[in-house]
Each structure stands twice: as structure tokens, then as C-alpha cells.
Amino acid sequence: MTQRLALLAAALWWGSLTAVGFVVVPLLFKFLPAAAMAGNMAARLFTAQTWVSVACGVVLLLLHKNKASAPDGRARTALFLIVFGLLMALLIEFGAAPHIRARDNLALWHGLGTAMFALQWLCAAAVLWRAPADWGAKP
């Protein structure tokens, strides 16, 4: 049960980041009549995505806590990836996004937000890739 829940949380985290960041938001900018409309909708989607990321990350952290009594190097790596990915999600939402919405030095904050989103995506991908081994059945 723990293995399936961890795999589901990791898949939802990575899949939702992929869908929103690499499919839905680019389509908004392509098909909505004004960039401002697309930007406003993208901001709402990224906020929703942040809370999906937080929920998935918390589930993974709780499962990680219950799984590892004495964390080895592999468990520490998994913990680092989860925490760092969550940190990126929260920094985007509470650090970069307010500046982007205010159009305060837009190029800088949009670039930082994009970089943090990419780092979060990589963390989620690594957690998903490693999930079968990290939460698999014990020998």
C-alpha cells in the first residue's frame, strides 16, 4: 500500500507539473486573444499547481518518515529531492509570483520562476524515477 501511494503521489506531482508547465500554459499563450488574459490564467493555474505539489510532497514526506527508521544514503537523497522540490514550489508561489503579477522587473522574476519550476520538475522526475526502488518491497 505504501509503495502504491508513494508512486501515485510522485506520478501526480510530476505529471501535473508537466501538464501545466509544458502543455496548458503554452497553449493559453497561443490561443487566448491577449497575453494579459493568458498571463492571468497561467498565474491561477500555477497557484493551483503549487498546492498540488505541496499535497504530493507532504504525502511523500509522511511515507518517507514512516518507511525509514535509520536513513541510509538513498533515503537521504530521496528526502533531499522531496524537500528541495517543495521549497522550489513555495519559492515560486511566495517569492517570484508576487513580483511577476506586479510586473516588477518582469524579465528577472519570470526567469527565476522558470528556473525554479524547472528545478522542481527535475526533483519530481527524480522522485518518480526512483519511487519503485525507494518504496519497493523489502528483500
Q: Helical segment tally?
A: 4
Number of strands: 0
Helix content: over 70%
How large is the share of residues in beta strands? Answer: under 5%
How much is the radius of gyration in Å? 16 Å
Instruction: Give the terminus-to-terminus CA distance.
Output: 16 Å
Number of folding domains? 1
Could you describe the largest sheet, including whether it forms a barrel? none
Account of the protein in words:
The protein is mostly helical. The chain has one domain (2-134). Helix content is 87%, strand content 0%. The protein is built from 4 helices and no strands. It has helices at residues 2-31, 35-67, 73-101, 106-134. It is elongated, with a radius of gyration of 16 Å. The two termini are 16 Å apart. 27% of the residues are buried.
SSE blueprint and pairings:
Elements: H1 2-31, H2 35-67, H3 73-101, H4 106-134
Helix pairs in contact: 1-2, 1-4, 2-3, 3-4
Short description:
The chain is an all-alpha fold. It has 4 helices and no strands.
Features:
single chain; 139 residues; 4 helices; mainly alpha
